[in-house]
């Protein structure tokens, strides 16, 4: 039964990612928004639903370490693992004029979170400031997306069907991620793998599975702007949206290790992605290999 659920979870991730990418691309064309903007917003935010559920529930249950660790760990996995795999499948080449504004927001969000964690908690006021950052990000994304409208052709899929495909893809992704995490954890325990290794691999990557499926499918379909925008948008939403919402609901105490150990990793990952993207004009396959190598080193050090 566990193997069956594992297989169903994989199928859900594949078909959910396929429908989400196709639907989001059609939505972008209907509104004459660039695929990058749709990747940053609808796709990026939608695939962050598991992180939102986990962090809010953890904060309400008095487990702040999970709430923060989930976001920081997912952001690292998003860049090193997911963009690494996606770039190996197909080079992710994005024009520099689109990179600076979006990666700039991701760098700013990472720096702001690091500063907030230095005093040992994220207060309600800081949560409101994070949500204000999210609103600013959305405003800039849609404004610049309209300016890029000359690059977009009108879609041939009816608008209602495009939205239905996008919504269905998101739902199937979340269901698939849940099935895969639960079944994979059960299988790992059956093989005698320790809880620490399970937490470091399956659970840490589990909430990022929708991003992985979506970006990989987008790379296969040569929708490189959605593949990159999905990750950048997800990382921005994880910090501004998820931690902002969570802190407004319940202030989040933070262990010192987050500011001293985990945030340096997250910041180095974000800066490394930005440097690779600008120096190489995007993320060619060599960049994907470098990102995956860095993720392997991260897992080895954390283990």
Structure characterization notes:
The chain is built from twelve helices and two strands; from the N terminus they run αααααβαααααβαα. The chain has 303 residues and is mainly alpha-helical. A two-stranded antiparallel ribbon has the order 1-2. Helix 4 packs antiparallel against helix 12 (285-302) and helix 9 runs antiparallel to helix 10 (224-249). The two termini are 30 Å apart. It is found in: Membrane. The chain crosses the membrane at residues 33-54, 66-93, 99-118, 125-143, 163-181, 193-220, 226-252, 259-280. It comes from Paragemmobacter amnigenus. InterPro entries: K/Na/Ca-exchanger, NaCa_Exmemb, NCX_ion-bd_dom_sf.
Question: Mind sketching the topology for me?
Answer:
Elements: H1 2-30, H2 35-46, H3 49-60, H4 64-89, H5 96-117, E1 121-122, H6 124-147, H7 159-190, H8 195-206, H9 209-220, H10 224-249, E2 252-253, H11 256-280, H12 285-302
Antiparallel strand pairs: 1-2
What's the CATH architecture name? Up-down Bundle
Mean pLDDT: 79
How far is the N terminus from the C terminus? 30 Å
Structural class, by secondary structure, is mainly alpha
Order of helices and strands: HHHHHEHHHHHEHH
Task: State the helical fraction.
Answer: over 70%
Largest sheet report: 2 strands, antiparallel
What is the C-level CATH assignment? Mainly Alpha
Give the amount of beta strand, in percent. under 5%
CATH superfamily: NCX, central ion-binding region
* Oligomeric state as shown: single chain
* Radius of gyration (Å): 18 Å
Biggest sheet strand line-up = 1-2
For this structure, the CATH topology is A middle domain of Talin 1
Shape: globular
Number of domains in the coordinates? 1
Number of strands: 2
What low-confidence regions span 5 or more consecutive residues with pLDDT below 50? Answer: 149-154
User: Helix count?
Assistant: 12
Keywords: Membrane, Transmembrane, Transmembrane helix
Subcellular location: Membrane
Membrane topology: Multi-pass membrane protein
Protein name: Calcium/sodium antiporter
């Amino acid at each position: 039964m566990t193997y069956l659920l594992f297989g169903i979870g994989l199928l859900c991730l594949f078909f959910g990612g396929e429908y989400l990418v196709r639907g989001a691309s059609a939505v972008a064309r209907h509104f004459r928004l660039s695929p990058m903007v749709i990747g940053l917003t609808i796709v990026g935010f939608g695939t962050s639903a598991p992180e939102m559920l986990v962090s809010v529930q953890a904060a309400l249950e008095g487990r702040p370490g999970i709430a923060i660790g989930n976001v920081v760990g997912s952001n690292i996995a998003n860049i090193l693992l997911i963009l690494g795999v996606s770039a190996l499948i197909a080079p992710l080449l994005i024009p520099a004029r689109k990179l600076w504004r979006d990666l700039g927001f991701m760098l700013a969000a990472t720096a702001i979170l690091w500063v907030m964690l230095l005093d040992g908690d994220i207060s309600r006021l800081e949560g409101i400031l994070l949500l204000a950052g999210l609103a600013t990000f959305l405003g800039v994304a849609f404004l610049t997306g309209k300016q890029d409208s000359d690059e977009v052709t009108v879609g041939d899929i009816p608008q209602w069907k495009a939205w239905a495909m996008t919504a269905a893809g998101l739902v199937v992704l979340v269901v698939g991620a849940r099935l895969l995490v639960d079944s994979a954890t059960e299988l790992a325990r059956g093989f005698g793998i320790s809880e620490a290794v399970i937490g470091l691999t399956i659970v840490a990557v589990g909430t990022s599975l929708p991003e992985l499926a979506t970006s990989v499918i987008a790379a296969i379909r040569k929708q490189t702007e959605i593949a990159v925008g999905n990750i950048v948008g997800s990382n921005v939403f994880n910090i501004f949206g998820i931690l902002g919402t969570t802190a407004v609901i319940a202030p989040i105490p933070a262990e010192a290790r987050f500011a001293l150990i985990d945030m340096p990793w997250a910041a180095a990952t974000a800066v490394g992605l930005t440097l690779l993207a600008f120096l190489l004009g995007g993320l060619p396959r060599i960049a994907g290999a470098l990102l995956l190598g860095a993720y392997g080193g991260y897992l080895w050090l954390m283990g």
